[in-house]
Amino acid sequence: MNPLRPAILAAAGSSRIKDVITRVPATSAVVQRFVAGETRAELVPVARALLESGRSVSVDFLGEYTTDRVQASAAVAEYFSLIDDLAEAEQSSAGVLTDIPRVEVSLKLSALGQSLGQDGPAIAAENLHKLCAKAVERHVWVTVDAEDHTTTADTLEAVRNARAEFPWLAVALQTYLRQAEDNARDLAADGTRIRLCKGAYQEPDTVAYQRRAEVDASYLRCLEVLLRNAWYPMIASHDPAMISAALALAAENHRAPGDFEFQMLYGIRDAEQRHLVGEGHSLRVYIPYGTQWYGYLMRRLAERPANLGFFLRALTERG
């Protein structure tokens, strides 16, 4: 694990450091590597190109920590337009319509109003229902992203409730959380579509594994649970060891490539993404866009030293 991870994640919450970094012109080069623009107009060509390459996409409109209902409603409106734009991009990419939608939106319940006081969970649940209903109309999937551990219980409850009407709704599980394996078993038993990732927030030792070996071991345990039991596992990892383990477990459990998918982040391991697609596997690229890219960027830098090195080189080359 990146030894600088705690410091970088702490910086993600610092408005002062954010102001310094966002004023540096060279930062834009780094942002463009990991974020597909600040507007849907910039995003759509990126999504279409990925679809034309044989990959699927999951698009996240960057926004969290919504502070009032107006912001939450604005996020819903943006996602409505995004769903329409993605559906049209898929149709124009000459892809074949299948039971597994090639376009998806990812969203955080905090962006939909989950943290707005006592009424927050109900507001977010109502907005999630609106977006799922819209997604059904356009043959688009929805995944609810994971956030920090304080939101996990409310997020899983919201997803379980929504799945009564939208059984295809997915949720992300972070395997650095100590409760991840139990959650994986419960969700797999319910037939929930699950995105498995390692996690990207700064968490206390009481709720999260701190050592890379522990996080990896948890990922492998959860991976086995999903590939043996879940309806449609989504394996979100860039780690060659996790990808190899997934391929071996999928073969053991007689899963064809269309019975699960790999997921990777936009801007990371593009050659490996293309290789997996060339081998006949389903692969979905997680694409973020929007003006609130700072927290997302810092979490990406915290995950891998290579990402941090790219960022530092860009800063030193600004002149």
Automatic annotation (TrEMBL):
<keyword id="KW-0547">Nucleotide-binding</keyword>
<dbReference type="InterPro" id="IPR015659">
    <property type="entry name" value="Proline_oxidase"/>
</dbReference>
<dbReference type="InterPro" id="IPR008219">
    <property type="entry name" value="PRODH_bac_arc"/>
</dbReference>
<dbReference type="Pfam" id="PF01619">
    <property type="entry name" value="Pro_dh"/>
</dbReference>
<keyword id="KW-0642">Proline metabolism</keyword>
<dbReference type="InterPro" id="IPR029041">
    <property type="entry name" value="FAD-linked_oxidoreductase-like"/>
</dbReference>
<keyword id="KW-0560">Oxidoreductase</keyword>
<comment type="pathway">
    <text>Amino-acid degradation; L-proline degradation into L-glutamate; L-glutamate from L-proline: step 1/2.</text>
</comment>
<feature type="domain" description="Proline dehydrogenase">
    <location>
        <begin position="48"/>
        <end position="310"/>
    </location>
</feature>
<protein>
    <recommendedName>
        <fullName>proline dehydrogenase</fullName>
        <ecNumber>1.5.5.2</ecNumber>
    </recommendedName>
</protein>
<dbReference type="InterPro" id="IPR002872">
    <property type="entry name" value="Proline_DH_dom"/>
</dbReference>
<keyword id="KW-0274">FAD</keyword>
<keyword id="KW-0285">Flavoprotein</keyword>
